[in-house]
Amino acid sequence: MRSTASACPSAIRGRADPGVAARENFMASHAIGAALGVALLSAAAQAGVEHTHDPETGLEAWILRAEGASFTFNQRLPDQTRAYFQGRGFRSGEVEAVALACVFQVTVRNDTDVPIDLDLSDWRVIPARGSHRPLRLEADWQQEWQRLQVAQPARVAFRWSLFPTRQSFQPGDWNMGMVTFDLEPGTLFDLEIDWHQDKTARHLRFQGMRCAPDRQL
Amino acid sequence: MRRLLLAVTLLPFTVLAATPAQTLTPVEPRPPAPDFTLQDLDGNRVRLVDLRGRPVIVNFWATWCPPCREEMPSMQRAWERLRPEGVALLAVNVGEDVDTVFQFTGSYPVEFPILFDHDGAVSGAWPIRGLPTTFVVDPQGRIAYRAIGGREWDDPALLQPVLELRNISTTFDNPPSGSER
Fold first, then answer.
1. Which pTM value belongs to this model?
2. What pairs with residue A192 in β-bridges?
3. How is domain A49-210 classified at the CATH fold level?
4. Distance from the CA of A74 to the CA of which of A100, B124, B163, B166 falls in 20 to 30 A?
5. Where do the domains of chain B lie, and which CATH numbers do they carry?
6. pLDDT tens-digit map of A34-91
């Protein structure tokens, strides 16, 4: 059911029919969709994704605001990540792998009046030349840190610095943390995210995202 | 002119309507709060169960967490308001050393107890996914509310449900009733 193409720069949708005709029949479709655990979104939510570029730092961000839920993806330079984790007990060699793994700072806010549930293991990156692949998650990294015998304080800091793999956001909750897309610096890619808003499964494809290049600020 | 006047009159309401109200999420049924004994900045041992009989706000945080830093000043203001009302507040630092936190308190002076969960064992025993996460423990030692992410803690809308928990302390020896069971 995962959609990989859209006419808009970015498209947000439930898992049911996303077509225009269906949107016009939104109310009727919603009743049916809700019964199936899926739904269409209102036209307001289809406004898409905001893309920003900081002229001072050159860093880019992608922001989705949809009916009170918001997802913000901020590029992090590899040097930022190196400095951050070295300051928390990682040795320089250990931190290189994560610094070069296309790290973004993600902020999720739930200002709706229903719970939002995320599971990053459902998310996929699609490199410009490549197929769908999962994110590199916190548990994957912890295996690596165990193998490398990374110091425990560093591993504790790493655990809490990454965005939780699974999290439920009640109304008013928000969180921020790093995600690693496991792509090389400068790589162009699309990102498909899934979440549940109450019982409704939602899906969005961010198109034309880019890993920060490996350069200094 | 009349339109301008109307716009100015309505502006505060528009801003209020656009700002989402801050909330604490009730936790039902209330599970027992995992007990802990942790050291504070001065090396004193603080045990959660010793605070039984009054509401306790337990905040999990770290100096490197931006929203944790952001909420510290409002948490201090909340503490000044709550302390005389018999509410306790504990800020459990996750995974950092005393020197780092001591340095941090130079920029963010706070008077409530900061405790140290050096190895993350206590944080691991609580239902936490990310930092900051704050819990409100009722006088019977059960988790009554949870907030994920930073808040402006001196907001009366957040403090009122905490203060209201004091009322059930009078039924401390009685069995829980209704939805609390």
1. 0.78
2. A124, A205
3. Immunoglobulin-like (2.60.40)
4. B124
5. 19-46+54-167 (3.40.30.10)
6. 333 333 333 333 357 999 999 999 999 999 998 889 999 999 999 999 999 999 899 9
